[in-house]
Fold this protein.
Amino acid sequence: MKITELIAQHINEAHEGGNWTEVNIKDTLADVGYKEAITVTKASYNTIAALLHHLSFYNDVVMQRLSGSDPVIGEINGFDVPAISNEEDWIKLKERNIQSARQLVDAIKAFPEKKIFEFTATGHATHYKTLHGISEHTHYHLGQIVLLKKLIRQTKPQHARSNSL
């Protein structure tokens, strides 16, 4: 198997399951409702929704880097999550993340393996390092999401917990 296919597999598994940590974005967020997704905690000013949007943003950035461009990353750094005011908005954000991951996986599989150790247009890292970085980035923020989910659920009064959240 080509190295690009292996890296693509890692990224896919972090989003949709099958990685060695047995934790992935899709399953972790399956039972998270929009109210939980937009809850701000004392542990972080980022919400689950903001972290998910940020991950999608960087999936798109890496796709652009694979195509040879150097996208401008503003100060907001992909944390400009659109307003989530109902379950439909939240479902769309989750779907957008999986879509961005699938597009990135396809772009990685199509990327010429002979270029993997060439520098991206940024000139700061090779494609290899960038692709491993996006995998690490996904796992890092997935860990934050898991912790925020647990924290939000531990601090809720028992009677307020329901499947509709």
Q: What stands out?
A: The CA atoms of residues 17 and 23 lie 7 Å apart. The helical segments are 3-16, 25-29, 34-37, 48-66, 87-110, 127-155. The chain has six helices and no strands. Residues 3-155 form a domain with the Four Helix Bundle (Hemerythrin (Met), subunit A) fold (CATH 1.20.120.450).
